[in-house]
Specification:
The protein is 62% helix and 10% strand. By secondary structure, the chain is mainly alpha-helical.
């Protein structure tokens, strides 16, 4: 096909528009990839990879969100797995990981709406309960303790 000189401007315009559209598509794909990457980085920064619970940073971020959204008071329970180092050293880290995952599942299972469990450190956990009533918080934590006791943890 031979392009006449009078049509060169028209075809040049069309070509420039196509190039621009391709560049916008590439930019959009780059932006979408960046958004996905940022969401992944946020998840890595906020959640413990083993237990999928909030980690320490996720805990602090969620506290900030509670404050910003005016969700009111709460109770905070601290749980430390006694002698966990012994189990890790005696039975291996794979068994230790299984224990940590099971503890996380149990703690997560007692959380209601606007409550969450945290893996605060190696064998340290927190539960943020949506109550300021000390008696209620104690009762809920006694249920957790009974669950662990009744299942030979």
């Amino acid at each position: 096909m031979i392009i006449e000189e009078s049509n060169i401007k028209f075809y040049s315009y069309i070509f420039d528009e196509l190039i621009g559209a391709i560049e916008r598509i590439e930019d959009k794909n780059t932006i979408e990839a960046s958004i996905r990457d940022n969401k992944m980085l946020e998840k890595i920064a906020r959640y413990d990879h083993l237990t999928q619970l909030n980690n320490r940073q996720g805990f602090y971020d969620t506290l900030d969100e509670y404050d910003e959204n005016g969700l009111g008071g709460f109770s905070l329970a601290y749980i430390d797995l006694d002698n966990f180092k012994y189990y890790n050293d005696s039975f291996g880290h794979d068994i230790g990981d299984v224990i940590l995952k099971e503890v996380a599942e149990i703690l997560n299972s007692i959380c209601n709406e606007n409550e969450f469990a945290v893996r605060y450190g190696g064998d340290e956990f927190l539960i943020m309960l949506n109550t300021t009533d000390l008696a209620e918080a104690k009762q809920r934590m006694q249920e957790v303790y009974r669950h662990f006791s009744n299942n030979n943890y």
